[in-house]
Amino acid sequence: xxxxxxxxxxxxxxxxxxxxxxxxxxxxxxxxxxxxxxxxxxxxxxxxxxxxxxxxxxxxxxxxxxxxxxxxxxxxxxxxxxxxxxxxxxxxxxxxxxxxxxxxxxxxxxxxxxxxxxxxxxxxxxxxxxxxxxxxxxxxxxxxxxxxxxxxxxxxxxxxxxxxxxxxxxxxxxxxxxxxxxxxxxxxxxxxxxxxxxxxxxxxxxxxxxxxxxxxxxxxxxxxxxxxxxxxxxxxxxxxxxxxxxxxxxxxxxxxxxxxxxxxxxxxxxxxxxxxxxxxxxxxxxxxxxxxxxxxxxxxxxxxxxxxxxxxxxxxxxxxxxxxxxxxxxxxxxxxxxxxxxxxxxxxxxxxxxxxxxxxxxxxxxxxxxxxxxxxxxxxxxxxxxxxxxxxxxxxxxxxxxxxxxxxxxxxxxxxxxxxxxxxxxxxxxxxxxxxxxxxxxxxxxxxxxxxxxxxxxxxxxxxxxxxxxxxxxxxxxxxxxxxxxxxxxxxxxxxxxxxxxxxxxxxxxxxxxxxxxxxxxxxxxxxxxxxxxxxxxxxxxxxxxxxxxxxxxxxxxxxxxxxxxxxxxxxxxxxxxxxxxxxxxxxxxxxxxxxxxxxxxxxxxxxxxxxxxxxxxxxxxxxxxxxxxxxxxxxxxxxxxxxxxxxxxxxxxxxxxxxxxxxxxxxxxxxxxxxxxxxxxxxxxxxxxxxxxxxxxxxxxxxxxxxxxxxxxxxxxxxxxxxxxxxxxxxxxxxxxxxxxxxxxxxxxxxxxxxxxxxxxxxxxxxxxxxxxxxxxxxxxxxxxxxxxxxxxxxxx
Length: 798
Known about the structure:
Layout: E1 7-10, H1 27-48, E2 51-54, E3 65-66, H2 78-85, H3 92-113, H4 142-157, H5 161-170, H6 175-185, H7 188-194, H8 200-230, H9 236-279, H10 296-299, E4 318-319, E5 341-342, H11 343-373, H12 382-389, H13 398-423, H14 428-465, H15 478-498, H16 506-539, H17 545-581, H18 593-610, H19 617-639, H20 652-677, H21 696-708, H22 714-723, H23 726-767, H24 780-785
Antiparallel strand pairs: 1-2, 2-3, 4-5
């Protein structure tokens, strides 16, 4: 059996090693010394030569023979051997010694900072480890490494246990090395404490505390892993991104973002409005309560009316803690010291604060998305980066590696498609024809939008003239049904018209479809908002119109979800079955990103419009989105195919968040501001029944603070000058615009500097020969060791 070959790197010693200074004291000097050492030994290798030598089994350690290549081929050049000698596999021993020396010097500084006696009082300066003794041998001197390890152990013994553990955890060594250093650095007293049966009560308490901390830590990790496993998008997003690309993945990421927004909106409402009113329920009104029949899940009326679901259930009184001793006659007396809870004020401020938090989070998410998608720099070389730098070598499972493989493959398809799109051009006649077709299609689409708006307005007026009698709540589904049918059928008409448009880019095609669907839905919602606040308020003067608006928005949300399920069933499943069974083409439908995203924005807008009249509507929206995620994911994987024209959706999430912020959230905020400041609340129900406007609750609270005493006089001043004064709002808007403008200018400046630096790099690389032509030449070692400095960056103003 052939014996394995043992190689050593034989570097002759030079007189320059004599009289060197001892080891440095801090990390920077250690780094500089190692850098200088590598440079000097590289220079020796370049000047005197470096050979790979074979050690014979019976020869003494100093005898070596030159190792020749196969069939008498010449050995590698000096530059190649120098590169091979710097590989991690041949410097592992040297790196371990460097780590030990580095942490030895760090412990010296810690001891000096802690005012402990230095080891230098016992060990002389010359006995400290000298990194100058290291050479380019494959097997490092074990005696020298052991000497450094012993010095490090002695320094660790002088540290406190906390500092010692912190230092050992930060060392880039293996666990076996760390355990050995910890065992050797423990004092005899510490070893006796660690032995069982000798610690007494103190050792028992320490072990018990350590066991409790460890159990709590494991419990926390188990809970976190359980919560992570319960999320519906644990593996689904990776699988969708790998099979269908970033364009389809952007829809599911947007759906996940909407779940987070609704949870953030729901939490303060549950804590300060719904939970408090549920703890102190109001007196039930006269008359029997309606029984639940099951239709309430669709209509939102019936037994749902007198619950915390809607605005009319909440009282306009000041809530206290539970009663103390009841008075005569069984009347409830508030307990002494009970804190009053003003429900009208809590209702108004909680909704306002929840909307403000949502606004801040939405603006931050949009800014973060802009920073991610429009990152400073360019995409030059991104193909090579994707090929050589995208694989995650920590992946060990077959399923995860398959998902990562699909992701990289789809990413390369999208990058290549984008690059081909940039290379293609269109003639002048083709551009004129394209503009003409686009103008005609846009006129047809706008005419369709106007027709739909007129139909919704006419049907709402018809519903207003024929009010629904009690017990016939099913007839209330007529208006939501008509609107949902229009929202379902018109996008398919837009899709047919889009087939006539000669779009070069699939990204532009999606953006055009998004804009058309957005115009349709926003115009429809505008007509409905006028119907609710303009017409319904006047028609329901003697009734609780807030409950009607809340129930109407609930019906719109539920029917929108049902129509999305029907569209998924007939638009994807039935189409796939027909194409496979009848046409034999095996052609599955593609996932319509524009229509599905606009349905999400439309549903979220309905939720924001109805949160003032139905505080639990965000909870309904969360359940709807979670069910929709599962349905869409299953239908996508089973019934849809990947886009025939791959394209990179680098800005899709940013565009979706922008549409969610400006048309959707801004429109909902304007609607709620009109309801709070302009419309008179109903006098039959709700927390604002005795006020002229909902905002009157805040004004009454300010007057109450003014009468309370001079200690709270600053709060009315803040309300008068910061809340009611419009100058402060304009000032905040001006500051926000100034910050946005400043960030835009900073990004432009960074891009300009990057462009100038790239030009400078291109000029430098043009004057240097390629690296590959000199790897085999021994004279290139001087070029690699001493590169020429680049010329000054004159483009940057130097």
